[in-house]
Amino acid sequence: MIKVFLCDDHALIRRGIRDTLSDAADIEVVGEAGDYGELRQLMREKTADVLVLDINLPGRSGLDVLHALKDEGTAMRVLVVSMYPEDQYAIRALRAGAYGYVNKGGDPGLIVSAVRTVAQGRKYVTPEIAQMLVESLTAPAVENAHEKLSDREMQTLVMIASGKRLSDIAEELMLSPKTVSVYRARVLEKLGLTNNSEMTVYAIRSGLVGN
Fold this sequence. Notes:
The protein is an alpha/beta fold. It folds into two domains: 2-137, Rossmann fold (3-Layer(aba) Sandwich), CATH 3.40.50.2300; 145-205, Arc Repressor Mutant, subunit A, CATH 1.10.10.10. Helix content is 53%, strand content 13%. The protein has helices spanning 11-22, 36-45, 62-72, 86-95, 108-119, 127-138, 151-161, 166-173, 177-191, 196-205, and strands at residues 2-7, 27-33, 50-53, 77-82, 100-103. A five-stranded parallel beta sheet has the order 2-1-3-4-5, sandwiched between helices. 36% of the residues are buried.
């Protein structure tokens, strides 16, 4: 039996994933968490083979959690399930230690296949991610400016470009508005931009958000 933890701040989404996984006879959801703090408490009380993790968590993001678990050397394998398209976060998640990445908007059955694959210690990537990996290996070594951004800076860029205000971002990520402003300033500096409009145009042209 594959034991699974779910970590997503939306209870309705957790329920949907839990119901999908519960239909598989060889998978059991043994615990749920809405943020990193709840996940740490869960890990003290129980063990699991696979953690199904959302990227967009309040406080410490899913990428932060991945880095923390990787540094600790935990045996639990992580499958990232996110609303963000593969081209935004998949490669970052895999580099941070994830064993797989699945888009929430895809076929629910993919999550079951992904959990089984990850539980076996194998990487799970969609054809889209596989293509991105091949292109990254064969393309000339030209770095996009946004690849220099930290995980949190990247998250801030995508959220601003998606039309969210700094106050909304601060509330969603459980950060102070001042901290979000610092991330915004770093993004502008690293990308050589001057305002939110230029940031949005950059994100659209780079395929980080839809137009």
